[in-house]
Design brief:
With 260 residues, the protein is an alpha/beta fold. Helix content is 37%, strand content 18%. The protein is built from nine helices and eleven strands. The strands form two sheets. A seven-stranded parallel sheet has the order 1-11-10-9-2-3-4, with helices on both faces. A four-stranded antiparallel sheet has the order 5-6-8-7, with helices on one face. Helix 2 packs parallel to helix 9. It binds the ligand O=P(O)(O)OC[C@H]1O[C@H](O[C@H]2O[C@H](CO)[C@@H](O)[C@H](O)[C@H]2O)[C@H](O)[C@@H](O)[C@@H]1O.
Length: 260
């Protein structure tokens, strides 16, 4: 991974930024800073203003682990696409397996809710976020978080072996097997939007499915350095997203004929 604001990063932007660009952003940790309680996450004004400005030039998508309804309630503008549950909710044309995902998640939730009653193993504050098509188990507030994390991994393997388990920031995401992931969703978004280039920005493990695409026509950016990431570039800290959005807007404005 190379810093985005480097010679290599700026050269890559020269290749990618044009009127045929699609901009795709993850939500938590990318557009919104991480906060201890998920229901308190907000899209800051300085990000909202820039996203609205960007949307005047190119199509924009939010591709998130949250549900679509959750994102709608947090984003005071209408991006071209909101795709939820890591790619399995909200994609035009991808409704085929929705009922199966819901059914499976309901069953998992029942099994896990019962198991989490064992406070000795899982702590008093471990809880399940039900997003319909996938579940997230949060253990951020657990007093002995490393032990709780280990116990949770063992529980998932034993009680819901079919789940695709993806670690995140003090969470485990539980996805139905074979459900589309963020890489699948990003490729589908390019197809349906007709974009010839895309930029994908994310910050967490589920974003690796998109980073791993490694396509010449998709530039990938991670918020915060992580040695094992497949992303091409990184922004050192969350607030750097603002400068990155400014850079995109400036470049797109320069492409417009003068006087527009
Ligand atoms: O794909 P994303 O949009 O990044 O969603 C990933 C998960 O984000 C949320 O959890 C994370 O953010 C919370 C609020 O800042 C934080 O409290 C939590 O510890 C983070 O892991 C969301 O709650 C999950 O459903 C998403 O899967």
């Amino acid at each position: 991974m190379v810093p985005l604001f480097s010679d290599a990063g700026l050269r890559r932007l020269d290749e990618i930024v044009g009127p045929d660009l699609l901009c795709v952003f993850d939500f938590d940790g990318t557009l919104a800073p991480i906060v201890p309680q998920p229901d308190k996450a907000i899209l800051p004004q300085e990000v909202l203003q820039r996203l609205s400005a960007l949307a005047a030039h190119v199509p924009l998508a939010i591709l998130t682990g949250r549900s679509v309804a959750d994102i709608r309630s947090r984003v005071a503008f209408e991006p071209n696409y909101i795709i939820g549950n890591h790619g399995s909710e909200g994609m035009p044309g991808w409704h085929v397996n929705s009922d199966d995902y819901r059914k499976l998640c309901r069953t998992w939730k029942e099994v896990l809710s019962q198991a989490l009653g064992d406070k000795q193993r899982f702590g008093p504050a471990t809880w399940i976020e039900d997003k319909g098509f996938s579940l997230t188990v949060h253990y951020r507030a657990a007093p002995e978080s490393e032990l709780v994390k280990k116990n949770l991994s063992a529980l998932f393997a034993q009680a819901i072996p079919a789940a695709r388990v993806i670690e995140g920031k003090c969470i485990f995401n539980l996805l139905p097997p074979n459900a589309p992931h963020k890489g699948d969703a990003l490729e589908k978004l390019m197809e349906i939007s007709g974009a010839r280039h895309a930029i994908y920005v994310g910050d967490d493990v589920t974003d690796e499915d998109a980073f791993q695409l490694r396509r010449q026509d998709i530039m990938t950016v991670r918020v915060e350095y992580f040695a094992g990431s497949a992303a091409e570039f990184y922004l050192p800290h969350w607030p750097d997203i603002v400068g990155f959005l400014d850079e995109l807007i400036r470049r797109l404005q320069e492409l417009q004929p003068s006087g527009v």
